[in-house]
Amino acid sequence: MIKRWQLASFDRQLALELAQEIGISPLLAALLCARGCTTSQDIHDTLDDGALADPFLMKDMDKAVQRLQQAMDERERVVIYGDYDADGVTSTAMLYTFLADKGMPVSFYIPQRLGEGYGLNKAALDTLSREGTDLIITVDNGVSAVEEIAYANSLGMDVVVTDHHQPQETLPQAVAVVDPHRADDESPYKDLCGAGVTLKLLMALTDGWSQFYRVAPYCDLAAVGTVGDSVPLTGENRRIVLRGLQQMTVMSRPGLSEILELGRGERPDSAKLAFTAVPCINATGRMGSPDRAVRLLTHQYNEQAQILARELKADNARRKEVERDIFQAAAEKVEASPALRYARVIVVEGEDWHLGVVGIVAAKLVERFGKPCFVLSSLEDGTCRGSGRSVEGFDMFQAVHGCRELLVRYGGHPMAAGLTVKQEDLDLLREKLNDMARELYPVMPVPTLELDCALKPGAVTAKTIQELQPLEPCGMGNPQPLFAIMGATLRGVQPLGSNHAHCRLLCEVDGSPLECVYFRMSPRDFPYRPGTMLDLAVNTQLNSYPRGKGFDFLIRDVKPSALDVEAVIAGEALYEKHRRAEPLSEEELESLTPSREQFGQLYRLLSKPGPWPVSEPLALLAQLGDCGMDCGKLLVGLDVLEERGLIFREGATWQVLPHPQKVDLNASPCIPGQGRREGESHEIWTQTE
Questions:
Q1: Are 203 and 209 in contact (CB under 8 A)?
Q2: What is the helix (H) or strand (E) element at residue 336, kind and residue range?
Q3: Alpha carbon of 140 to those of 110, 165, 296, 429, 639: distances in Å?
Q4: Confidence of residue 612 (pLDDT cuts 50, 70, 90)
Q5: 45: helix, coil or strand?
Q6: How far apart are CA 674 and CA 320, in angstroms?
Q7: H or E element: which one contains 126?
Q8: Packing angle, helices 631-643 and 596-607, rounded to 10
Q9: What average pLDDT does the chain have?
Q10: Contact 579, 670 (CB under 8 A)
């Protein structure tokens, strides 16, 4: 899948001046300039690790504190109503621990993802009422629960809402609604997640909110929730995660230390939270009972924490297996159906696909096919239910909202959405989604890779990489630096890992050797041949190998140097238009049809020893050189050669079938406009002897 590379621009002289003024490295100054920091104050604000703003600037925070204080004084029964994802679980664990330490009779309730779904529900409220609950405090949910909170009030229960989602026009009739996105909220930072709002509540309850250290024991959980909810790691979120990572080194929370597998004094980073702790916590909600994750994070006994940690890890391993199976099944369905593969929006469904992982599978399909994808599960009740993920620039919520008359329920935001549709309406939904996409996005958005700056690898040392550490913690809104290395000549590919699932690229840049690690790319699947000049998008990573430079270049993307990416994108879009059987102009028909000579060059190239991966036409374009064959013609050419029996797919690669005589390619139904251009003499032959 081709990605558009967007290389940031910045004032090099200004970067040098700022580096001298502030006392930071020129590379760090260049990165910050590329990200919009053009003054020393901008840089100070970006890297600041100071205090959080006054929590009482948040609307209704005073009311929330007053009601909670009343509950403490009167020993009321309090229930924390959370959510099953990492943000909701950590928010619940934070507030539960805080109130339990105060000696309050407090408990928590986490709804089941599959049985109850997100947020408050009346059945749960009935249960809590029967148990004698006086006060419900929602964390990471509640701002849209107008009807449910009115019902709770009718049962004699008060509700305090703490949330970070966008409110509807009408706020619920709760004692307090604390949400930075309220229209009348005056707090300065709006990107907090649920755990961040909960931390602000704890600060307000300590009567010493300006003393960050008073809530330090809870910052570790707030950090996990912040990273897990993919909110921007800027401003107050960055400070929360910094403090949380520091708190983790104390290892005061046995359960968290267990799932992070921390040794005493080890310093975790945001990546370890994102790829270790968050998936384990989320897996409990996806695969089983999410309350176990709260118990893990609140246990003070190592033995119990170890048992629960093993359960969470087992859930996560099972989640990975189920996810892998569903992804493989979904991808095969898409590949086997041109109607799915070449649609503007992919909607793929399967029978009883696990609803806990369909969103993750949708994200993986977006990465593979480069377009918005919905993954739905056909259920026994006659509905299809699932999730979608988008590419930047395509508003997924707008798309599903436009199909609302076909849907049982739906919700979401521009990059993700969930929906339920009756099975008999599924084909109509698929059609309408694609009709809307055609009307709203005549040119569909494509994935874009944002690069900070170009790098001369020969000038990079471990010290250079170490000087970038002030950017940590990296994540959403503050990504790990991504560099472009242009014009690297490939010299060889070496296997890495016990099963050769990864590889090392041996390159040369300006006469100097360069090695890069490419994870999840086996040497067998790497499509480019030695001698090809490549552009590389890379991250950097420090290491402690006994031999080596002390750092690695890690490959994120590869493309042939001097490739006209926009022409490739346009050619691929035109080819997909042809495969959807949409009307093409005569000019478009002509631009998609390879000449006799181009067919010959393509066939001769494929006849050389491979591999030539089916999914990597850019490698073929790089080898074809300046023959006038663009991406659209190449894809058509492959279709024609395959249909005529000259090539075939074996696994993930193209193989050539030797043919004893000439073959009339012009007779192939894969030629664009075939049957509509009678009278034209456009004979295409290729010698295949």
A1: yes
A2: helix 302-336
A3: 11, 8, 19, 31, 50
A4: confident
A5: helix
A6: 45
A7: helix 122-130
A8: 70
A9: 90
A10: no
- Give me 544's structure tokens: 């402690």
Helix, coil or strand: residue 242: helix
Q: What SS3 class is residue 161?
A: strand
Q: How far apart are CA 168 and CA 161, in angstroms?
A: 14
pLDDT above 90 as % of the chain: 69
Q: What is the mean pLDDT of residues 446-474?
A: 92
- Contact indicator for 463, 433 with CB cutoff of 8 Å: no
**DSSP label at residue 575:** H
Instruction: Give the alpha-carbon dihedral of 240, 245, 247, 250, to 10 degrees.
Output: 180
Tokens of 662: 């000439």
Taking each continuous run of H as one helix and of E as one strand, the counts in the chain are 25, 22
Q: How many CB atoms lie within 10 A of CB 427?
A: 10
If one counts every other C-beta atom within 10 angstroms of the C-beta of residue 181, the result is 14
CA 74 to chain centre: 45
SS3 79: strand
d(CA 72, CA 478): 39
Pairing, β 685-686 against β 663-664: antiparallel
Q: Is the pLDDT of residue 209 over 60?
A: no
Which of 10-19, 644-653, 679-688 has the lowest average pLDDT? 679-688
Which one-letter amino acid corresponds to residue 252? S
DSSP state of 487: E
Phi, psi torsion values for 556, nearest 5 degrees: -110, -30
Quote the tokens at residue 643: 């249909």
The pair of structure tokens assigned to 190 is 């709006």
In the chain, the largest separation of any two C-alpha atoms, in whole Å, equals 94
Stated length of the chain: 689
The enclosing H or E element of 349 equals strand 346-351
The single-letter DSSP state of residue 597 is H
More confident residue, 687 or 257: 257
Going by C-alpha positions, the residue among 358, 367, 371, 288 that lies closest to residue 329 is: 358
Calculate mean pLDDT across residues 589-604: 91
Closest listed residue to residue 191, CA positions, set 165, 162, 173, 159: 165
Radius of gyration of the chain (CA): 28
String of b and e for 376-395 (b: at least 16 CB within 10 Å)? Answer: bbbbeeebbbbbbbbbeebb
Strand-strand pairing, 453-454 and 483-496: parallel
pTM recorded for the entire structure:
0.88
Q: How far apart are CA 489 and CA 506, in angstroms?
A: 9
DSSP 170: S
Residue-by-residue DSSP string for 401-455: HTTGGGEEEEEEETTEEEEEEEGGGHHHHHHHHHHHHHHH-SS----EEEE-EE-
**Confidence label for 547 from pLDDT (cuts 50, 70 and 90):** low
Pick from 318, 428, 416: nearest CA to 375: 416
pLDDT of residue 524: 85
Q: Which of 380, 327, 321 is nearest to 114 (CA)?
A: 380
Secondary structure letter of residue 56 according to DSSP: G
Q: What is the DSSP string of 506-545?
A: EEEETTEEEEEEETT--TTT--PPTT-EEEEEEEEEE---
Which pLDDT does position 616 carry in this prediction?
83
- Pairing type for strands 106-109 and 135-139 reads unpaired
Two tokens, residue 654: 């193209």
Can you tell me the distance from the alpha carbon of 229 to that of 198, in angstroms, rounded to the nearest whole number?
A: 14
For residue 13, the tally of other CB atoms under 10 A from its CB is 8
DSSP string for residues in 541-566: EE---SSS-SEEEEEEEEEETT--HH
Cα–Cα distance measured from residue 516 to residue 485, given in angstroms and rounded to the nearest whole number: 11
Distances (CA, A) of 270 to 226, 249, 483: 10, 13, 20
